[in-house]
Amino acid sequence: MSKRFPALFQFLAGYFHQDWVCDHETEDDVIQSFVFESSRETISQVKDELEVVLRTIQSEEELQEFLFEEIGCDYYYPYAWPSGKAWLEHVLSLL
User: Fold this and answer.
1) Which of 22, 43, 46, 60 has a Cα-to-Cα distance from 90 of 20 to 30 A?
2) Using CA atoms, how far apart are residues 7 and 40, in angstroms rounded to an integer?
């Protein structure tokens, strides 16, 4: 999947790594950091890939497998969000 969604992979695996809580107070701070450090083109690529994911992955189980196993995102959103779709829509709105 990192080959299919390279920008999203770099964002989620690179910014939401296992120590993200040491670098940022909240998950929104992680997203703001990414926006601050990235070019408009990179942000646009992440948004485009995120929109594809939101359109194509329908079940919560598939979304968790995609985010945690394939992408390597270490933010465990189920603690704070009702679904992966809700969290990813929030991420998209902040980008």
Assistant:
1) 22
2) 12
Report d(CA 47, CA 93) in Å as an integer: 9
Identity of residue 35: V
Q: Give the whole-angstrom CA distance, residue 57 versus residue 10.
A: 19
Of 70, 87, 71, 68, the residue nearest 28 (C-alpha) = 87
Alpha carbons 19 and 83: distance in angstroms, whole number: 22
| pLDDT given at position 2 | 62
pLDDT for res 14: 87
Which residue, 57, 54, 40, 44, is CA-closest to 86? 54
Give the torsion sign (CA, 56, 62, 67, 70). negative
At 48 the pLDDT is 97
How far apart CA 73 and CA 84 sit, in angstroms, is 12
